[in-house]
Every structure is written in C-alpha cells, then in structure tokens.
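Researcher: If convenient, please comment on what follows.
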Amino acid sequence: MMIVKRIREVYPLLDVLRLMRVAKPLTVRGAFEYYTTPIKWLVNLGRLKYRELLPSHLFLSTKYGLYYTHVSNIVLLSEEVYEIENIMPKLVGRDTVFVDVGAYLGLYTVWACRRARRVISIEPNPVALAYLKVNIALNECSNVTVVPKALSDRRGYAKLKIPKETEEGLIPSVHSSIVWDYKEAFEVEVEMDTLDSVLEEVGVDSVDVLKIDVEGAEGLVVRGAEKTLKKAKAVLIEIWSENMWVARYLKNSGYKLAKTIDHGYKNYLFIRR
C-alpha cells in the first residue's frame, strides 16, 4: 500500500515532466517558476501538492500550438500526446473536415486548425469555453467554428454538472457531464442538440474525422449522429465501461477497431472499413 501511495504522490510530477517535453512557458517569470517547480516539490515532498507550487495560470508554447490555461488543467495538455503525435497526423490533412466533440481547452482543435480545411469545435462548459476561445484566438484559427452546446440524441436543454473540487480549491473544472453526478458540482443549464442537427446548421454535409470525449455521454452523442457516422472516415472516441455497447454499435455501422489507447480511461480509434 505504501508503494501505491508513493506512486500517487509522484504522479502529478510525472504529468508535468511529460508536458515539459512538448511545452515551454512564454514569459521569463513563468519559465523560471515552471522549470524550478520540480526542485521545490522535492524539497517540500509530503507537505505541498505539486500544483500548489506552480503559477496559477500558464501561457505555453507547444509543438501543437499556443495554450493558456489554469494550472489545474495542465494535465489535459499532456495526457493525449500519443494521439496527437501518432494518430491524428495520419487522419488529418489539407482537405479534412474535423469535428471536435468535447473540445475542452482546445488541444485537438488548435492542432487541427493548422492542418485541416475546417474544424467544428463543440463545447458546452462555460469555463472550458472561455479557455477554448482564447486559445483559438491566440493561434489565429480562422477555420474553426465554435458551437457552445451539449450533444445528445435530441434537442432541448440539459443540466450540465461541473465539479467544484479541483486540486486548487473551488475552481470550476473544465470537465463536465450531462449524465454523471459529482459529489459537489455547479449546475448550468445548457442548450442540447444532436450532432447531425449541429452540422446541418453550420453547413457541413460530410465529416472526415470525428473526435468524441464527453464524460459518459458518448452513447447519447452517437445516437444523435446517425447521418454523420454514415460518412465519417474515422472516429476517435473515449468510451466508459457503462457505454461499451457504443463499440459494438460502431462496428455494426461499418467501422473496425484500429487502436485502443489506455490512459486509465480508454480512447478507441475506429476506421471505416
């Protein structure tokens, strides 16, 4: 048990070291605080959490673009480096229409805007949406359309639950869900729509690559994307255990499972047969 506890203590440090491989702060002060934090963390081991030693916000220059975020969210910029570096370049090109469902801070959106013909970025969480819009502007992503809606299998309104607790205290998280309950959460009423309807409204009749990361609502999204899934060439989707039927649904819809990426949660890459 002591070994497991120790690993959990070190894990946040490993996250940031992974991020340091691809990102650097743009200000002198930010860079100094960023690069000296591992030393300060080791000195304070057991007394302070790693993220408490970092500046509250980071302005990062990465291989994928510029990102501005609260320190509590930096793990989101390091977790899916594998997908960005090894999967997305094979799927996204100059003529690609890419749809980012659950865009969060815009990791995929910003990466794709430099390579795709058009990007549709869908995010209902007002906290994440603020960072997303800033990051789109920082990278001058003129080919991105932002849609501030929650996706489901029908139109209407939903209660979006946003966890209050983060490692920095009562800061609303960029994570949110219309299906999950959290111990403590803000509730925000958001507009809900189907993917098929959203794409029709923004003038997209065919999607090449679809990324879905919606905290347990992936089943609702695919049910509302019947038309889209008939044409999409690839789907990168996070599927939780309660929705594993989604994998069978995609296989029955003409896709084959090409890759499973395990981050503790799992992303699945489906390619049209």
